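Supplementary material to the annual report.
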Amino acid sequence: MIKHEEKDFIQSKETKIIKGNVAAAYAAKSARVQVISAYPITPQTTVVEKLSEFTDAGEMPGTQYIKVESEHSVFACVVGASIAGTRTFTATSGQGIFYAHEMIHWAAGTRLPIVVAIASRGPAPPWNIWADFTDVCSQRDTGWMSSFCATHQEIYDEILMSYKVCEDHDILLPKFVAYGGFILSHTSKPIIIEDQDKVDAYLPPLPDEKGWPHIFIDPERPMMHGNLIMPSGFYAEFRMKIQEAHMKAIEKIKNAAAEFEKIFGRSYGNGLIQEYKMDDAEVGMLIYGDLALQMEEAVDEVREEGYKVGMVKLRHFRPFPVDDIINIAKKVKVLGVIDRATAFGSQTGGPISSEVKIALHDIDGTAKILLLVIAQTYIYSHRRYFGVQEVLIDIVFRVCLSGSWRMSCSGSR
Amino acid sequence: MADTEKWKKINKSKEERPIVQEYSCWEELPPIPISLPIDGAIGTTGDWRTFRPIIDQENCNQCGFCWMYCPEGSIKRMEDRSFKIDYIYCKGCGICAKECPTKNIEMKREVEEI
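Predicted assembly:
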């Protein structure tokens, strides 16, 4: 169940009705980040605005808030601050990520545990500020981990979990925490802002031991990094180390989610994926980001008609949970994949559906994959956007169901 | 990084830094390429020298120009404020001799021409 029980919110004293962006800012505050670098871009702006209010009001003692002149500088700034051994945070969107692309590679290559909130926005042109995950998905090969949030509460929780995973000495990788621009970033919902003591127990403040094990700034013990590597050198080996860390992160993400559930009582599946009514499902729908909430209701509706359908919410794009996807594809007859991002020229759908297809390649007894790429205009250009969305998801299920009917008739997969 | 602790030790204490960094396999590598500056990390560069700079200590006015201009930090200021060239690392570039305002550094050929 992705939706949180209402009683959880009523019971808690710490519940606030806030926007998704503000939730991200609260998460940074709860995580006791030490350096925040800021540059505004719609729809992310209110994250750094709220953080500037916090630092200005003295609610985040010891936190450096640095205003810079561009997204490229934002990432350069957090990279520098992270090398000095601080917990760093920033937020950006769409065009901002593309501008910062060089430094994004640099952060992963230097193995810095930076966490960045992304209020996802479609790439221009046509000029666009609304939700589309192409901005995060296009950073697939940078070495960053990336995850998607479906609810306001998940934004807060995922940022805390991300620091836990990223700062693990076996991992040391940066991470994007993406959520749909405007759909989550600018709508308000009740969110539990956890007690600082509880957060500190889950995510302790960084020990004062000057930096990470592999890199730090200390004039007494100088070091140089980012060295030139000759063709006969170790370039491939250092790339391999990033891949190795991603593979290890799968287990760490599961552990972080399990520990989070133990302390805070909110479950996010196994951390990598979250299932809804998949136990007896014949048709499954894999989806990521905010649409998962609507999909959950669509599953209930279609189930009332007697169809056995279920939903899988993909939480992590990098590292990609191949084993979990294979297990799901073995359970169902048809697995629909709804992409919220584009991968032009691909004949296997968007970035996620391509990934799912590759994961199932050569695995016997897995489901037929139906690919659907939903451009954001379907959802937004219409005034009655919630209505359109419901109809759309209903149609999506019907497409899948008809697919499964055809398969049972022909008797082949 | 199973050897996180090892890298922490090597990076964080000067004494543990190896003079020559060697790796037998990729797992032994640190997570990122790092250079740890130590004296002569790439060998004794004094071998490269063709001309040896020699300071005429008697006429030297100890202005410190050679010490400032030396690109390799091979000139050391002694306790009596005189200067001494470290011939183990001096590459013999001749910048000190060129910059010396009193022309008291002589560049002398290491091996006489045959």
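The longest helix of chain A spans residues 235-264.
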